[in-house]
Amino acid sequence: MRAHADERREGAAESRDVSLRTADYDYALPEELIARHPLPRRDASRMMVLHRAEERIEHRSFSEFPTFLREDDLVVLNDTRVIPARVFSDDARVELLFLDPLEPLLWKCLVKPGRRMRIGATVQIRGVGGIVREILREGERIIEFASPVDLDSAGEIPLPHYLQREVEPADSERYQTVFAREPGAVAAPTAGLHFTPEMLDRIPHAFLTLHVGVGTFRSVLTDDLREHRMHSERFAISSVAAAAMNSARRIVAVGTTSARVLEARGRPIAPGDGETDIFIHPPHEFRAVGALLTNFHLPKSTLLMLVSAMAGREFTIRAYAEAIRERFRFYSYGDCMLII
C-alpha cells in the first residue's frame, strides 16, 4: 500500500516538473533587475551554477567558467552576427525590421504601424522604393524593393524591447559577441556576450551558426505549450565543427540557440545547412547537449522552457527566485547561469 502511495507521489511530482501549462513558467521580476546596459568588462558577470544531480546552487563569477569544464569537453558557440535590421522609412512614418532575405530584392519584414503597410502600399528607404506584395499569417510583410537596401547605412541594431531605450554607440560593439562573423541575426546569442578572446584561447571550442529570429522576443501566448508554433531559423554546421562535436565526450552549449541546433541534429551531429523550428520544453530528453551556459530569460518564454527542460522546471523556478533575491542582473546584458 505504501509503495503505491509513494509511486503516486512521485508521479505527481514528475507531472508538476514537466508541466505543459504556460502559466507554470511565469515569475515576477522587479524592473530594476533588468540590465539595461552591459558591464564595463564582458567577463565580469556573475554566474549562477546549477548542479542538476544534487539540485544544488552556487554563486560564482563567469571568469571561473573554465574551471567547470571536464577533460574532453567541447564548448559550442553561435557565431551569428546581428545585422542593423531596424530601419525607418524616409518620411519616418514606418518602422521596419528586416527579418529574412528571400531573394536579392525580396525581404520578409515586420512593420509598425501595420495599417500603413497593406498589400500594395509603398515605402521609401534611403530613396529605394519598396512595395508590399504579401501579408503572412503572423503579420510579417513580404516587401519587394526596386534595388538592394544598404542596411549598414540605413539601419541600426535592433535592441530588445525590454531595454526600453534607444540604441547607443556602444551597442554596435557590445550587442555582438567577440566571435560574431556570419551576418543574419536580428537578436544576439546573448550567452556568448560574456566571452573575451582571452577566455576563448583557454577553452576547447567550436562554432555553429544559427541566425536568431524575432521569435526569441516572443512569449508563449497559448495556454498549452503543445499549441505554440515556433518560428523557423536558419543554421549551419561545418564538417570540421561537426567532427569536433562528435569526438567530444560532453558538449557544453553556449546559449539556447546553440542548444536548439544541436538537439535538432542529435548525435552523431551531421554537418550541413538547414532550418529548425524545434521547441524544447519539458519533458525533452537531451541527446546532444550535456551542459548549458545561458542568461536569465523572460517569463513564459520558449527560452525559459528550454532551460526548464535541461534543469527541471521546479529547480529552474527555484533558481530564478534565488537570483531575484540575490539581485542578479537579468536578460540580454545581464548575468548568466551554468547548468551542469
Structure notes:
The N terminus is likely disordered. The protein has two domains: 242 residues, QueA-like (3-Layer(aba) Sandwich), CATH 3.40.1780; 69 residues, Thrombin, subunit H (Beta Barrel). 21% of the residues lie in helices and 27% in strands. The radius of gyration is 21 Å and the shape is globular. The protein is built from eight helices and 17 strands. The strands form three sheets. Strands 2-1-17-16-14-3-12-13-15 form a nine-stranded mixed beta sheet, covered by helices on one side. It has 340 residues and is α/β, with parallel strands linked by helices.
Write the layout of secondary structure elements.
Blueprint: H1 2-17, E1 46-51, E2 56-61, E3 73-78, E4 80-82, E5 86-88, E6 95-103, E7 106-112, E8 122-125, E9 128-135, E10 141-145, H2 151-154, H3 171-174, E11 182-185, H4 197-202, E12 205-210, E13 233-237, H5 239-247, E14 250-254, H6 255-265, E15 272-276, E16 291-295, H7 302-311, H8 313-325, E17 336-339
Parallel strand pairs: 1-17, 3-12, 3-14, 4-11, 14-16
Antiparallel strand pairs: 1-2, 5-6, 6-7, 7-10, 8-9, 9-10, 12-13, 13-15, 16-17
Helix pairs in contact: 7-8
